[in-house]
Fold:
Amino acid sequence: MRKAASISTQSTGVTLQVGPAERMEAALAEYRDRVLLAVRYGAGTQGLRDADHPFIDIPTPVLCGAPRLEIWGARERAECFRRDGLAWAEDGWALLGCGSRRVGDDMEEDAVQTYRELLALLDERGYPCLQRVWNYVPGINQEQQGVERYRRFNVGRARAFEERFGDAAERQFSAASAVGTTGKELSVCFAAGREPGSHLENPRQLSAPRYPADYGPTSPSFARCTVAPAGWGRAVFLSGTGSIVGHETTHRGDPLRQLEEVVRNIDALLGGADPPSGNGRLDLGRFDLLKIYVRHREHFAAIRGALARRLGATTPAIYLEADLCRTDLLVEIEGVSLSRTAP
Structure:
């Protein structure tokens, strides 16, 4: 897998590399005091690691080979911190971090406490504007006290936003995803800045905060896409995107037709995003990293083959086996595109 492109502006920049974990461990040593966040997928362990920089293990199985390691780095020195269940690093422009909380019998309370601490931290550190959040929810489709865990998670997350922002809460929703994971830890990774990004919606889909009550007592709290501000590098963060038109799941039981619908949704969404590098309209094949979540392992080969025919061999992608936010969704795609001085 090639090295990912980097965010680059005249004054600052954030870099992203991803590859097999064993090989990427050397890159961690190379970055030294410039690591903003490291995320390892598929190693079997879970939660925050004892390291000099924010480092979290996500146990979600990797379908495309060995465990993968994702490293976000600063171009200049980053300061690293850790407090209870949160670890983060900041470089004056961007703050990236991760957190992990062992879940109990009330996912709503676990979510509200996680997000209370996260939002309070961002305010305290002077990076109040979320750009992206990745949520890994154990047993996401299981029932807890008669309600699906994902729905209880949504209630808790929304409560935290409403407590901090009141009626303006929805304007603070950034790009996000929530997928299932194994183990007992609710894990979050996050990126924030000093200035707000531009949050985009998809003309083919109802905005998630506007979902009808059929999908739970509180709608999901996220935007379909966020374009980070210029000081952050004008990165484009694509939320987890499924086979949903309006608010309804389409092509139930058919992973390849769902994949086609996912691609249509991404194309429609990106039609409204300014190209981050000025090198033409952004499309799926120009992302610097895609994550493809596949619910059933037996669908992986067909999904990878169909997507490879569209993307070619140059787009870095990680395929992960994971339950998704709706039981009838079989595949979901998210991505990061980084503004850069050269294509």
In short: Residues 1-12, 275-279 have pLDDT under 50 and may be disordered. The helical segments are 21-31, 107-125, 149-165, 255-270, 300-311.
